[in-house]
Amino acid sequence: MDKEIFSQVDKYISDLLAPEDDALTDTIKSLEKEGLPQQSVSANQGKFLQVLMIACNAKKVLELGTLGGYSTIWLARALPDNGKIITIEVDKHHGEVAQKNIDKARLSQKVDLRIGKALDLLPEIIAENGEPFDLIFIDADKPPYTEYFNYAVQLSRPGTLIVCDNVIRAGKVLDENSTDEKVQGVKRLNKMLSENKTVTATILHSTGVKEYDGMAIAVVNRIDPLHLKQ
Ligand SMILES: C[S@@+](CC[C@H](N)C(=O)[O-])C[C@H]1O[C@@H](n2cnc3c(N)ncnc32)[C@H](O)[C@@H]1O
User: Residue ranges of the domains in the chain?
Assistant: First the structure.
């Protein structure tokens, strides 16, 4: 099967179930105009995040890696009126572009955009001692994914969903000798997930308009995971 069919089917699904409005298409256009990388989730992935949000009744969400705010807009739109999302971005320019896009989408009241390194800001969020998050989306730099995940668990409650993007990397995770630090970062996370007793996790791999990749999805256990073992 050639790659073209995956893009066409992705478009078929997004036309049906994840149509973009001006706020979303303008956000994607702003990336090019402002010199940001085209690394946003796809429309279908944005919709998938919304489905997860609604399934876990998410009112409080944390995102690592804002870029231009494309995924933030999908996430914020699935929040109830009193819902909030904190999104963390290290790059000031990315943050400025994202804030404009969030304002244009009329979501400023729901979005708390924080500029800084995730590894610096996460302990601050823990120190704030607020309510746990219902869903955490990890989509920042890949080498510290395991550390991000461990912080995410500390900010969770039983039932919280933790979603980590780009953990298959076009199948490069199969390469045992990969020296790519992004591949090494996600492999370390995937291995940790296989041993972690606090969460129940899987990886959904996917093709589409983007490169072949996958999202790890973990739910913080409500019950002893041992009963799930065969
Ligand atoms: C893949 S993009 C995020 C895409 C965005 N979630 C979306 O789908 O629209 C990754 C973003 O993480 C940011 N980033 C990289 N390292 C970071 C760090 N240490 N802390 C916070 N953000 C970081 C990058 O600047 C970039 O904007």
Answer: 3-220
Pocket of ligand 1 (CB under 6 A): 39-41, 64-65, 67, 70-71, 88-91, 94, 117-118, 139-141
One-letter amino acid at 95 equals G
CA of 126 to the centre of ligand 1 (A): 20
pLDDT tens-digit readout, 76-92: 999 999 999 999 999 99
Per residue in 98-151, pLDDT (tens digit) is 999 999 999 999 999 999 999 999 999 999 999 999 999 999 999 999 999 999
Tell me which residue of 111, 121, 53 sits closest to 87, measured CA to CA: 111
The closest alpha carbon to 45, from 88, 85, 13, belongs to 13
Round to whole Å and give the CA distance between 120 and 123. Answer: 6
- The pTM of the full predicted model, rounded to 2 decimals, is 0.96
User: What span, in angstroms and rounded, lies between the C-alpha atoms of 61 and 68?
Assistant: 17
What whole-number distance in Å separates Cα of residue 197 and Cα of residue 135? 19
Model confidence pLDDT, tens digit, residues 173-225: 999 999 999 999 999 999 999 999 999 999 999 998 889 999 999 999 987 65
Please give the class, per CATH, of domain 3-220.
alpha beta
Chain centroid offset of residue 98 CA: 15
Ligand 1 pocket test: pick from 141, 147, 164, 213 the residue with the most ligand atoms within 8 Å of its Cβ.
Answer: 141
